[in-house]
Specification:
The protein has 9 helices and 10 strands. It has 2 domains: about 190 residues, Rossmann fold; about 50 residues. The chain starts with a strand and ends with a helix. The protein has a 6-stranded parallel sheet, with helices on both faces. A two-stranded antiparallel sheet has the order 5-6. A two-stranded parallel sheet has the order 9-10. It is about 35% helix and about 15% strand. It is α/β, with parallel strands linked by helices.
Length: about 260
């Protein structure tokens, strides 16, 4: 079997990017695998990518050329936001190749992608035909303009049935699959399958003695709850070691500094 993996990397390398790398590695042991990796950018270039993601003809042509050259039996799409855009889904379907898509978040249900707003659970978009409350609350990057445009991208492709062209949606947990099935996403429930993430067996068999440290490994962003974790540890007799990067890096460093100097 020939498998083509398509993914758009985030500006800050994160969990989704690691999952894609791991899946490519394990699939290559049994199948012929090729990948098409795009990259999100920051600043003006990123703004242009975001604005054009509703109908990105350039990226669709790149995907079309790759399929013609590689001739995959199946395409596995991970992140399409925002450098690539959903138009590539229509391109893949038009070329007659089965398409599987892993849902790493809830972006197709709400512009927040995390169902969180200001650290509070936000589920209003699950029942609205268009996420006006999400726009009002500026759930995407605290901007009603960016939230509105992202909502338009998802909504417009829902109207022209782009999402229906995906043969199978892979969810990470049963609860995630249930949220999609119970929402107004309007995709046949049989299209959703559950496949949890995996990790490779560690090659380090050394047993370390239990210490006084706890470790956080992950992206430094609001939805990860890193602020709550730091707050919980400030009065505990343990050390918290933070490994990761993200847009909250400087804020977290300042908070830790303030705690130490109180």
């Amino acid at each position: 079997m020939r498998i083509l993996i398509i993914h758009t990397q985030y500006y800050h390398f994160g969990g989704e990017d690691s999952v894609v790398d791991q899946e490519i590695e394990i699939l290559k042991k049994s199948y012929v695998v090729d990948s098409l990796i795009f990259k999100n950018h920051n600043g003006l270039k990123g703004a242009i990518q975001f604005a054009s993601s509703i109908w990105n003809i350039k990226k669709a042509k790149i995907v079309k050329a790759k399929i013609k050259a590689f001739k995959p039996d199946i395409v596995h799409l991970h992140n399409w936001h925002f450098s690539t855009g959903p138009l590539i889904i229509r391109t893949i379907k038009k070329m007659g190749v089965p398409l599987v898509c892993t849902l790493h978040n809830y972006r197709l249900l709400c512009p927040s992608a995390t169902l969180l707003n200001k650290n509070i659970l936000f589920l209003d978009s699950l029942e609205q035909s268009f996420p006006w409350k999400a726009i009002k609350n500026k759930v995407y990057k605290n901007s009603w303009v960016l939230t509105f445009w992202l909502a338009i991208i998802v909504w417009s492709h829902k109207k022209i049935r782009t999402w229906d062209k995906i043969n199978c949606f892979i969810c990470l947990t049963p609860s995630m699959a249930k949220l999609y099935k119970d929402s107004n996403f309007s995709i046949n429930n049989s299209s959703f399958l559950v496949k949890p993430h995996f990790v490779f067996q560690s090659k380090n068999n050394k047993i370390a003695e239990k210490g006084n440290d706890f470790i956080y490994v992950g992206r430094l962003s609001e939805e990860k709850g890193i602020h709550l974790l730091i707050e919980a540890f400030k009065d505990l007799p343990y050390n918290l070691k933070i490994i990761g990067d993200g847009y909250m890096r400087e804020i977290i460093k300042k908070n830790i500094y303030d705690y130490k100097n109180k």
